[in-house]
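Each record in this resource describes a single protein on a pair of labelled lines. With that in mind, the following record should read easily:

===
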Amino acid sequence: MNSITKNEAFHQRLALLIGTEEPFRWAKRMGIPSATFARIWNNYDIPKHEHLCRIAQRCAVSLDWLLMGKADSSSMEDMFAFVSLVGLANCGIAQGWFNESDLSNRILLPSFMASEEVFAVLCRGFSMAPVGIKDGNVCVVYPNRPVEFGKPVLIRTKAFVENEEVSLSTIKILESEDEDTVSLCGWLDPDETGNQSMFTEKRSKSCITLIAPIGNILQIKMPEKESQIKQDIDKEILVECLETLHSLYERIDSQKFAQAVLFLYEKTRENSSVDMETIRSLMEIIGSQAADSKL
């Protein structure tokens, strides 16, 4: 795995499993004592067998992948899952809240990122750019995980639009709360110098129906218009794409591999074949060094 050490490579895979969750909170969910996890996380140690097995089981990954980044080719298809893309998140002040809708579309993720409750939103706007959520990113939302102050969340409220009750959502930083309200913050669009000013807003708890943490932020190329999104999944093409890129799995992290598979899948659906432009774009996603090895 390039020039990084075995322990550094393990640490990268562990960070991928943790996502944007606070590491020690994640460790508590895994059942790993704080002192033990501090040694693993801060010293780049590899856990003992008991904790390795616990992480693998609860995150639905193999020990081969966790320790060495390797996947069993016979179970490649099982290593990925589709989660629902439920809406377009306008992360901004002018249109900071979006009317969440079912796009009847799914995105491909490593299976350890997916569960029955997980869903994703496509982000538009710049109010979350300072914390790494950029225009066009896909945010994976985990409703069953605890939220943390100072971290990005998707917050859903009831609202009346044109005399009709709708569900409005946004992605903002959860700043604080009191008995009746929660405080959220974001950033205004960049000014002519590129700087962004922070803003805050309060929402009544009586209108809030969901506050859920953002677990992973993915840079996935998505169509500009909802009407362009494919609604059905061609399993044969998916398996073909997984097999085509399988040799790269040990050379790049799982999140980047999932992005590459999704991109190749969409291009194959569009063009029925892979052209040089697609290959160049794949190389940008996975890195030319890994691509040169066996694409």
About this structure: The radius of gyration is 20 Å. Residues 223-231, 288-295 have pLDDT under 50 and may be disordered. The chain has three domains: 1-70, 79-218, 234-295.
